[in-house]
Amino acid sequence: MWIRRVNLRISGANLRNKVQLFKNVLYGTLFPVSSYIIIAFYMEMITLERKTVEDVLQQGIYGPLETKPEERRKYLGTLRERIIIALTKSQVAETNPYPEVQQSMKEYPKAQLLLNGNMTYEELSKYVKLAAKNKIEHKIVTNKEHDTDIGLVLAMNDAIDKEEIYITKKVQITEMHAEKKSLFAKLFRR
């Protein structure tokens, strides 16, 4: 009965806690134990480190395990928490690059520029030139299995948790006072 409680406690802890628990058991500070329990505990720690054959086969077939795969597919291989700026494909396809991207490249010199490889190089070239000018590393990411609406991502290697990552083009509406003029007045300006 006493051994079962120890094993339940061991199997519920993470590796760091298990090492600390092992030290406490070894030095007898936690509770008096026999050498049999110490050996069983040590063997359990060793088996935790080994991968099973099934795990190795699964990683060989499907690739290594990764966190938030859907988010990574959407944001060109990175996580949303690392993104400084994101542009859609239609924004990247515009003739002039966004000044906010250039400003952010200057502000974050260790950032990385990720471009959607499903777009033409003519559309991406202006941002590649910007990245080269600002000495920013860039990658063209192509995912044949999943298409995303994101065309450009400027991201860091670590999380920065920026709330607003999308740039929206501010449409300035200029109010014109259109006066109704007659055809004669339009032809002969006074």
Describe this structure in words.
The protein has 190 residues and is α+β, with helices and mostly antiparallel strands. The chain is 45% helix and 12% strand. It contains nine helices and four strands. The protein has helices at residues 2-11, 15-27, 35-49, 53-62, 69-74, 89-92, 99-107, 121-133, 183-187; strands at residues 83-88, 112-116, 137-141, 150-155. A four-stranded mixed β-sheet has the order 1-4-2-3. Helix 8 links the parallel strand 2 and strand 3. Helix 2 runs antiparallel to helix 3 (35-49). The longest helix is centred in the first third of the chain and has 15 residues, at 35-49. The radius of gyration is 30 Å and the shape is elongated. Residues 1-12 and 171-178 have low confidence and may be disordered.
Name its key features.
190 residues, alpha+beta, four-stranded mixed sheet, 9 helices, elongated, disordered N terminus
Secondary structure tally, helices: 9
Helical coverage, percent range: 40-55%
Question: What class, by secondary structure content?
Answer: alpha+beta
Radius of gyration: 30 Å
Low-confidence stretches: 1-12, 171-178
Shape: elongated
For the secondary structure, the number of strands is: 4
Query: What value does the average pLDDT take?
Result: 78
What is the H/E string?
HHHHHEHHEHEEH
Kindly report the spatial arrangement of strands forming the biggest sheet.
1-4-2-3
First-to-last CA distance? 106 Å
Largest sheet: 4 strands, mixed
Which percent band covers the strand fraction?
Answer: 5-15%
